[in-house]
């Protein structure tokens, strides 16, 4: 439309110039014909109109490009808020699942259910006959034969319910995630670019259930303990799914900032990675039961580094099976975070251009570090009491969420 206006105006002005040249030609002393002032006026009018039209076209194109960029980068708040709230609810349920999983491990309940039945296993034993069959299956496991020989049916029911509730909560999260996802998808309420990401999160959740059984199966043969590596992988995938849902929810609620400072942004993402690695180290502590050894702080039985640090051969086995090395690594990562997070907080204060929201996120992250560090030390000194250990596990996930939030405000 704008190009047609250009062409029409150009033809009209050329016609006007031709008429002016015919009517008012002036002759100089040398009798050479010169364009009259009217022609110069017409040329000026053409140039002015051309510049104004170009400005309008350029302004409209820039506005269209900006509107397209805004639509792609930040979805409308009215459409995305319900999706974000749904994801935050899933995050809360997954946090509860991680805590229940920790309690299941601490109460030695994880091997009480000897079969993986994603559908049929939704219903617990109802009659006495069903309880007798479930108990007989457990009596054939290495844990019963080597650890719990002579356990009564009532005692078996106590550990059974923890593992059952853990699995039931996992199934519930799958339903709470899948059904709203399909509803939002059919109603076209999921913003552009997020549908595939949410589907990938669901697939990871399904894999998490299979990985959980793979972990449990390692404790049903010979050694009545689950593999520390499989337990750590199970925990790590759960935290990764939590982080993915939390990040998407934040992206839907808070659009990208107009400007961000590179230094604090990189620092924040490095902290996210460091907290995640520390959680994995905590999974190895749980898998090897290293928390029941070296119950002193800040030294490990009077030494900065225990003499048994590299007692196993080959050397790399110490990092996954040696109680001393596993606990030392977890402590070392905690000390690194205890130095890095206050430094990050200070960087957000002295760096110009850091938004107030980012500084508030750094405040929350620092506060969460103090709480988590205190819970960890108390859990160690009191030899892993159930309530403190569960709180410490929940605190790790919340610390990870705080690091993600700080990074998100600086992205």
Description of the structure:
By secondary structure, the chain is an all-alpha fold. The protein has 3 domains: 2-57; 80-253, no CATH class; 259-411, no CATH class. Helices cover 73% and strands 1% of the residues. The protein has 13 helices and 2 strands, in the order αββαααααααααααα. The protein has helices at 2-23, 37-73, 77-106, 128-139, 142-146, 153-186, 195-217, 228-253, 262-288, 318-321, 323-350, 356-381, 386-409, and strands spanning 26-27, 33-34. A two-stranded antiparallel sheet has the order 1-2. Strand 1 and strand 2 (33-34) form a beta hairpin. The longest helix is centred in the N-terminal third of the chain and has 37 residues, at 37-73. The chain is flat and about 65 Å long. The two termini are 40 Å apart. 30% of the residues are buried. Residues 20-78 have low confidence and may be disordered.
Offer a few descriptive terms:
mainly alpha, single chain, 411 residues, flat, two-stranded antiparallel sheet, 13 helices
Average pLDDT, to the nearest integer? 84
Helices, by number, come to 13
Structural class: mainly alpha
Oligomeric form? single chain
Q: Helix share of residues?
A: over 70%
Number of domains: 3
Q: How would you sum up the major sheet?
A: 2 strands, antiparallel
Relative strand content: under 5%
Report the strand count. 2
Order of helices and strands: HEEHHHHHHHHHHHH
């Amino acid at each position: 439309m704008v190009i047609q206006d250009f062409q029409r105006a150009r033809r009209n002005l050329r016609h006007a110039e031709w008429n002016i040249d015919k009517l008012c030609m002036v002759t100089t002393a040398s009798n050479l014909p010169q364009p009259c002032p009217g022609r110069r006026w017409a040329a000026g009018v053409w140039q002015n109109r051309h510049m104004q039209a170009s400005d309008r076209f350029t302004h409209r194109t820039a506005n269209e490009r900006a509107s397209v960029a805004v639509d792609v980068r930040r979805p409308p708040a009215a459409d995305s808020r319900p999706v974000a709230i749904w994801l935050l609810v899933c995050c809360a349920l997954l946090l509860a699942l991680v805590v229940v999983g920790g309690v299941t491990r601490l109460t030695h309940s994880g091997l009480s259910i000897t079969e993986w039945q994603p559908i049929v296993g939704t219903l617990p034993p109802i009659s006495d006959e069903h309880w007798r069959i479930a108990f007989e299956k457990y009596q054939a496991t290495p844990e019963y034969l080597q650890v719990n020989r002579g356990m009564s049916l009532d005692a078996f029911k106590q550990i059974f319910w923890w593992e059952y509730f853990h699995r039931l909560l996992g199934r519930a999260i799958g339903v709470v995630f899948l059904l709203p996802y399909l509803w939002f998808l059919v109603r076209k309420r999921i913003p552009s670019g997020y549908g595939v990401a949410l589907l990938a999160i669901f697939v990871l959740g399904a894999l998490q259930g299979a990985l959980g059984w793979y972990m449990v199966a390692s404790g049903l043969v010979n050694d009545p303990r689950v593999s520390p590596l499989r337990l750590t992988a199970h925990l790590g995938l759960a935290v990764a799914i939590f982080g993915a849902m939390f990040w998407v929810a934040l992206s839907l609620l808070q659009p990208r900032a107009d400007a961000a400072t590179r230094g604090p942004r990189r620092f924040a993402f490095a902290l996210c990675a460091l907290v995640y690695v520390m959680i994995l180290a905590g999974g190895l502590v749980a898998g090897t039961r290293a928390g029941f050894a070296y119950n002193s702080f800040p030294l490990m039985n009077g030494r900065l580094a225990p003499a048994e640090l590299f007692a196993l051969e080959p050397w790399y086995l110490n990092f996954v099976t040696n109680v001393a090395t596993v606990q030392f690594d977890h402590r070392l990562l905690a000390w690194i975070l205890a130095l890095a997070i206050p430094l990050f907080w200070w960087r957000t204060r002295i760096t110009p251009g850091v938004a107030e929201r980012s500084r508030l996120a750094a405040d929350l992250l620092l506060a969460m570090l103090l709480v988590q560090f205190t819970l960890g030390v108390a859990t160690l000194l009191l030899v892993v009491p159930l309530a403190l250990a569960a709180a410490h596990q929940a605190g790790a996930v919340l610390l990870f969420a705080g690091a993600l939030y700080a990074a998100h405000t600086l992205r």
